[in-house]
Amino acid sequence: MIKVEIEYRGKGFHSLLIKGHANTGDYGKDLVCAAVSACATGSMNALEDPEEGFDIEIESGRLHCLAKGAVSEHDEAVIETLLIQLKTIEVSYPTAIEVKEKQLAK
Asked: How far is CA 75 from CA 12, 14, 35, 86, in A?
């Protein structure tokens, strides 16, 4: 199962962790994994200045994105769009992906 954990501090984005595999198809042919990977990688590429504003680690079966400070409105919109995409996949494949949101103390 793919586990998605997104954390907010106050009203803003703090971190995102996507880990695991959907196991809904053979390796390299798993459509759920492909969808999550495409959405997540595309979103990281759409951030305004990912190298300056975020610590991002991407490897097989894992993506971690940590905000280094305040996040711009543009980047908040990118992250929110990614969250909507992942929740949409979760609706169709609830046994393959789980999305959790967490509010951290300020």
From this structure: 10, 11, 21, 17
Contact 90, 97 (CB under 8 A): yes
Q: What is the pLDDT of residues 31-54, one digit of tens each?
A: 999 999 999 999 999 999 888 999
pTM as predicted: 0.93
Can you tell me which residue has the tokens 């990688």?
41
Q: Is the pLDDT of residue 90 over 90?
A: yes
What single letter denotes the amino acid at residue 103?
Q
CA nearest 78: which of 37, 36, 50?
50
Q: Are 98 and 90 in contact (CB under 8 A)?
A: yes
Tokens coding 104: 């951290």
Mean pLDDT over 52-62 rounds to: 94
Asked if residues 104 and 8 have their Cβ atoms less than 8 Å apart, the reply is yes
